[in-house]
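Possible regression after last week's pipeline update?

I re-ran a chain I had predicted before the update to compare outputs. Posting the input and the new output here so someone can diff against the archived version. Not blocking, just want to make sure nothing changed silently.
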Amino acid sequence: STTTLYCRGVMDTLRISERSNKVTENIDTASPEDMLDMLKRSDDQMFEGWEDYPCVLSDCCVKTLARVADSAADMLQDNIKNGSKNAFIFSGCGTSGRIAWLCTRTFNQWLTNRGIPPCFYYLIAGGDTTLIRSEEMPEDNPVQGVKDLQEINRDNKYVMYFGITCGLSAPYVAGQVDYAMKQEMITPVVIGFNPVSLARNVPIETCEGKTCREIFLCLEDEVKNNRGFIINPIVGPESITGSTRMKGGSMTKILLETIFLTALNQLITRIPSISACPVGDRSTDGEIENEKKRLKTLPNSVVTNGGPGVVQEATTCQGAVRNEATVRDLLDFYHRATEAAYWYNCDTLHNTEFNNLISH
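New output (post-update):
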């Protein structure tokens, strides 16, 4: 019918992150057990894919993550060997900004524990108060976004800027990306979970009337010239419609950790003098050994985060490990960890299946 065709047309232009997920359509009337099952099946889409769109384990996404990690390793190595001031800036609104803060803290702690000057920074629309209190208006201010980026980037040499916008819809981030593309010393990286063709297409008055879509399409052209990166695996619609703090937030953290754990692993391979264990008085030898035992399921070739201030190396890298293989190992680990979390919280699957999983 005409109505059906119209609805299909609207859905085709609606951002995937804003659509309803068929898996969780009846979650409001489901039992607790069924809710968990629905949420698990929805989260599985992060790794197993949604419809015919490329997921995080697709070749194109894995290759992009590996390339970003390689560039990051080069910048870190330059800092260590030549005393350069290369930096990484994570920026986002709401949950994206909070994850930017969390990852900044974690990665800087890894460096500090090894006597390496920290070089990770974060930006969140509205400033630090929005880490604990939501504010919508700053998210729509690209001018302030550019000012914030300029302020934090005064003394750096090269910068890898990560603009996180789950829906490819945040003017605060889009303004920063537009600015970064014009700077020779900044490499822009955009993280989102929609095709660029579905990015927000509303003119931003304070950004020369450009739309988010136009800005990200320009970045696509820059990517072809090796002047930036777009990381946008499709994780499927959110379990609760439009709540990108769910799958979008989880995948943002997974992507950032995958990139920089791969880069840090490569860095240890290049510079063996970097300690594989934390230094200082934050962790005792016993605590470190306990963490190693607890995280023994990690891929053999990667470095992983064992909690605030503790970053462990699962095993010594044997020879030259390709970044793509490391990326796949890490993503597989995160997939298994996500499944384990659901199994652990179910009343009947319980510890037997959970323990079987983590013992492999």
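Follow-up from reviewer: compared with the archived run. The chain is about 50% helix and 10% strand. Marking as no regression found.
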